[in-house]
User: Which sequence fits this backbone?
């Protein structure tokens, strides 16, 4: 069985919050809803090249652990997305998880990743 690539350990720190578009605001609502429905640690939402959105919550099972952002990206890819326009993570952390960040960058080198607090307040944006 081939080894899976190492997950980046870096936890990007969001810079000053970028100005949100109305569509990015919708991503925050979707991410908060995904997190709240199951009481997850994180919620995330992404928007693909066609404007379709995908929301997910973090998963922690004995045999499977995924960040909310990884699962949102995986859902987009499974639905045929080839590029992401933007992403949002709703979390209590002050940094973006490295694995979720890497998943977004697999599809888009320049999509902003907005990090928001559980109340929806934007903490910052990762653009690198």
Assistant:
């Amino acid at each position: 069985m081939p080894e899976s690539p190492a997950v980046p350990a870096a936890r990007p720190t969001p810079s000053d919050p970028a100005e949100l578009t109305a569509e990015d605001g919708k991503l925050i609502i979707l991410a908060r809803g995904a997190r709240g429905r199951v009481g997850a640690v994180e919620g995330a939402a992404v928007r693909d090249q066609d404007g379709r959105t995908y929301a997910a919550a973090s998963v922690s099972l004995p045999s499977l652990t995924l960040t909310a952002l990884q699962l949102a990206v995986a859902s987009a890819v499974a639905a045929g997305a080839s590029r992401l326009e933007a992403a949002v993570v709703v979390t209590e952390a002050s940094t973006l998880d490295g694995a979720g960040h890497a998943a977004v960058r697999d599809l888009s080198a320049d999509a902003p990743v907005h990090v928001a607090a559980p109340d929806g307040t934007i903490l910052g944006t990762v653009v690198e």
